[in-house]
Amino acid sequence: MAQGVPIRVYQVTIGTESATFSNTPGQHNSSQMDAVIFENIRMEGRVSVDNSPTTTSSDDVEFRFYNLNKTTRQALMQENATLMLKAGYDTSWQRDSEGNIITEYDSLPIIFIGGIVHAYTRKDPGSNDVVTVVNCSSDQKIRNMTKVSVAYKPGTTKAAVVKDLVKRLGFPVSRMELSSLGDTAYSSGKSVFGQLDHALTRICKECGLQYSIHNGTISVLRSDDQPAKGSDTSVDAWLYTPAQIMELDAYFEQKSVKLAAKKTSSHRGKKTVKETPEDETVTTKNGVRTKTRHGIMMKSQLNGNVKMHDFVKLDGLNAVMPDGSDGDLKDGVYRAIRIDHTINWPDGEWSTGLKLVEVQ
User: Fold this and answer.
1) What b/e sequence results for 327-350 when a residue is b if at least 16 CB atoms lie within 10 Å of its CB, and e otherwise?
2) pLDDT tens, 214-252?
3) Residues whose CB is less than 8 angstroms from the CB of residue 320 and which lie 6 or more positions away in sequence, other chains included
């Protein structure tokens, strides 16, 4: 097939989980029979997802569609509506009988799939455009509505509890990295009740884990974002070189905790010192412990193939910036802990931002 200059393409599918998306979160093969599908309409969008456990959803998503017809606007307003956006680049020069480029939409990566939380239409100030604003989330409704009340018998392993709560939440599993728990168990049993996502957050925190939901699938992994033992991060990583990177910068975050007064103890055993990851530094002064975490913020052309917690290999940075940001911008394998897609058609920004932490 002949190849040409890449052009921006997108496709939006609107339907219901039961009819259009087979009622399966994370199953993205849509049936066109009960769906409204459109492309080549002016749009602006942002899709952000991170691993923060304090929010009521894992993502923050808003789309603005301009001058939609009545049928499409009504589809966006229907109860339990689901929206799927595919977007990327098409380099095909295959054309139909009228000379129009034939876009292979099925091969485009999924930027977002999830429920429509709120949608409304208004007149755009200063123009004759009618704008439909759509706010979405891949997990907000399920997380806010799902409750739990369960007791686990003595001796139940922590891994078994995490797996059971994830199963009850109902999302297909993208990755489940529980090797750090080993066979540790709740010797006296464990009771869990209340809102399920809050309970899962608490259990993960006490087990040194975290979870996040991206496009209707759930991942559970270590809270320090380090890979499971035996992972070949270099082989499994997305490769980025300077030619693919639009912006690159180092960042650091600080979190301070006031330490409690030490208790006297007759225990004379040797205290285990927890290893500090390479991307963190810990200092203690005047009874306050401060943890500083280092990482990289980068922006590239739109890439919907990179998912939350995927590994990213940066290669070639040392050659073009040997002393970048005091050595913080360096080649290596990193993990994505935040993704920000910006989608504007037909013009404007069309990019993916990644927040990365280095893995050991």
Assistant:
1) ebbbebbbbbbbbbbbbbbeeeeb
2) 998 999 999 888 887 767 776 789 999 999 999 998 876
3) 242
Residue 310: strand pairing partners: none
Residue type at position 53: P
List for the chain the helix, strand, coil content (%; round to 5).
15, 45, 35
pTM of the model: 0.82
Q: Write down the residue that tokens 């876009």 correspond to.
A: 103
- State the DSSP H helix or E strand holding residue 293, giving kind and residue range, or none if neither: strand 288-301
Amino acid identity for residue 329 in this structure: L
Which stretches of 299-344 are DSSP H helices?
Answer: 317-320
Contact 50, 214 (CB under 8 A): no
Tokens of 267: 């225990």
pLDDT in tens, 49-107: 987 755 667 888 999 999 999 999 999 988 778 999 999 987 766 777 777 777 788 88
- Residue 285 CA to residue 125 CA, distance in Å, equals 54
Q: How big is the chain, counted in residues?
A: 360
